[in-house]
Structure of fumarylacetoacetase:
Amino acid sequence: MPLDHTHEAAATSWVESARDHPVFPVQNLPLGIFAPADGRPRIGTAIGACILDLAALAERLPEAVRPALAAPTLNALMDRPPAERVALRHAVFALLTDPARRAAAEPCLHAAADCTLHLPFAIGDYTDFYVGIHHATNIGRQFRPDNPLLPNYKHVPIGYHGRASSVRPSGVPVVRPKGQRKPPEAEQPVYGPCARLDYELELGVWIAQGNEPGDPIAIATAGDHVAGFCLLNDWSARDLQAWEYQPLGPFLAKNFHTTVSPWVITAEALAPFRAAQPPRPAGDPAPLPYLWDAGDQARGALAVDLEVLISTAAMRAAGLPPHRLSHGPATNMYWTVAQIVAHHASNGCDLRPGDLLGTGTISAPTPDGYGSLMELSTGGKTPVTLPSGETRSFLEDGDEVILAATARAAGFAPIGFGECRATVLPAR
Ligand SMILES: O=C(O)/C=C/C(=O)CC(=O)CC(=O)O
Ligand SMILES: [Ca+2]
Ligand SMILES: [Mg+2]
């Protein structure tokens, strides 16, 4: 049965907190791994202020996915064919909307506030791309004043291999990294706490079924390999980065901690929020055929609003709410998700279920939408003033950074991505 989003849009859940819920209405049904107060991690879905235990309800869900529902990660479940993922969504949707199924499902609901959220996958590999052309231009100007956007940028989706071990779910504090840097006036490099700690606003892409080693993924079918999306903060030590990045790219400046929102916002839930990829500016090169698909250009972008907020220790002490640093749409991506998936596998590299791709920092063209503090503060030349009267060029210990995202489309209830936050702790 294909997905019928018009039918889904009109439905309401018997879970009262889900009605008009700004993040987790019944149209969202994100998948994740949660542990109730006294229980082991298991697969669930967020619904309003609750989490539904899907492992406990396996007998009422499609037979083909039952063995995978018993696992403490989503890897095996997302290794199932796309049609089975759709069937699972239908079945969970029916459980949560059909009053006749309420008696069976209700005992498997937990208050989300009493549960712990874990990483959704055992992550094999993490790769970070660079699709935010405004970010690439802004940051390139600071690292390479004469040559901000390198000539390969519009031909090849640039990326680097990140570190899977240090991807952490929302809420785990980030310890300020130490490292080697060369202050501008210094003759010799020094080792010590990072002095230019930054965040990066990105979307994360979770890989579903992979490809065989040696077999590229055709761009027209790249979407079948995407399980869903999360928010991703690629914490970055700019002083370490500036010193270490040539010629092999980011290394210790970006592998100490990466925060993800723990719910997988599935590709199925986001289907009504697909948008046309903005046309390439006149004069830009046409991508090579392996990166070009008309259907992807028509529906490959995401109508998702993104924002970054900060809360400092002084703001919290004064009772001030988090302050929004920037906001902008996810359509500010020069390359689509299908293009980065197809490119990653274009050499025969095998992607596997639970691999994580970062899009790269998504900045808008104007400062109110810049996705990193290095851009907002122009590398320290234009510090940002906060409601507490404090200023920030880079992050201080005690600062909490919160990323948020909401998908919006006319005729559909908005769906949110959930929490992606972490607080900076002093270096050890
Ligand atoms: O242009 C550079 O040298 C620096 C690039 C980055 O900071 C890499 C990165 O993490 C990509 C991104 O988030 O867009
Ligand atoms: Ca990044
Ligand atoms: Mg990182």
